[in-house]
Design brief:
The chain is of the alpha/beta class. The protein is built from 5 helices and 13 strands. The strands form 2 sheets. A 10-stranded mixed sheet has the order 6-5-4-7-8-9-10-11-12-13, with helices on one face. It has a 3-stranded mixed sheet with strand order 1-3-2, covered by helices on one side. The longest helix has 44 residues.
Length: 304
């Protein structure tokens, strides 16, 4: 069947219409977005304000509670002290807890009493104190301070004659007290602290070697010898013994073995009888022992 041109189908083109945005429509959308943003901002501000009020109220409440007498420290009890005055230690602790933390919380509160901080401060302020422990008795609202004082072992001195100054040291070589005059009966030490150091309080004498030297001195005291003076010089030491002779030892060596060798020299070689005429015994060279008599007679012994 013949069809005319009019019957020939042709693709239909659809026209997509883009919505027309007018100025008034854009303005209304922008206004609506602005209102939503403003509402959200107000909500955030309100929440932040509420949180701030709650935090401030809590901090204020806690600050008020910290100053109540119900939580206050009523008593500071000091035990174990001798030369360190009780009143001085109590005053020190109260002075360093007067200022509130951040201006808000009382440090004289039994719960907030700064135990560790005060222990460290007191140990520095009172070098006479060896150990200090602060504990809290909550039912009695009391702070208990237990003190162990340093025991004088010797005296460390420098200078000579009128310029001589001496300090008391414990058995660890810690310098904790200054003395105008030397103390009778204590071993005197010299050297072991840099000469350029003017303030020697709270420092230690020959800290690497001192405790080993104390052990060595105890060993030679057990042999019936009496040390009266020890001079440190780098890695060596000279021990002055009664009735006036010197013992030279190497600090970086085995002082235990040196003590054993010294006993062998004194006993086996019958040196004890000559100690009154001895100038020095030198034990810095291992098993080789050198001794010199005051009249100038040199001799060498071996402990091998």
């Amino acid at each position: 069947m013949w069809r005319g041109k009019s019957a020939i189908s042709s693709p239909i083109k659809k026209r997509i219409q883009t919505p027309v945005v007018t100025k008034s429509t854009a303005a209304r959308a922008k206004l609506a977005h602005s209102r939503v943003a403003t509402r959200r901002r107000k909500i955030r501000i309100l929440i932040a304000s509420v949180v701030l009020v709650v935090v401030v109220s809590c901090v204020g409440g806690l600050s008020w509670l910290s100053f109540l007498n119900f939580f206050a420290v009523n008593t500071i009890v000091v035990t174990g002290n001798g030369e360190v005055k009780t009143l001085a230690l109590q005053s020190f602790l109260l002075e360093h807890t007067q200022k509130p933390v951040m201006g808000l919380f009382s440090q004289q509160n039994i719960l907030l009493f700064p135990k560790v901080q005060l222990e460290n401060l007191a140990l520095f302020e009172f070098p006479k104190i060896d150990t200090l422990d602060i504990s809290k008795d909550f039912p009695k609202h009391a702070v208990i301070v237990t003190v162990t004082e340093r025991v004088p072992y010797g005296q460390w001195c420098r200078g000579a004659d009128e310029k001589k100054e001496c300090y008391v040291i414990d058995n660890k070589g810690f310098v904790f007290e200054k003395k105008i005059d030397t103390i009778v009966g204590l071993i005197q030490f010299e050297g072991g602290i840099a000469e350029s150091r003017r303030n020697v309080l709270r420092t230690s004498v020959a800290p690497v070697y001192f405790e080993n030297v104390v052990t060595f001195l105890n060993s030679i005291i057990d042999m019936g010898l009496t040390p009266v003076h020890v001079t440190f010089q780098n890695k060596d030491a000279t021990v002055r013994l009664e009735p006036g002779w010197d013992l030279k030892v190497a600090l970086d060596g085995d002082l235990g073995a040196t003590a054993v060798n010294l006993k062998a020299v004194l006993d086996t070689h019958n040196v004890r009888a000559d100690l009154g005429q001895m100038q020095y015994i030198d034990m810095r060279f291992g098993d080789r022992v050198y001794k010199k008599m005051k009249e100038g007679i040199d001799s060498t012994d071996s402990t091998e």
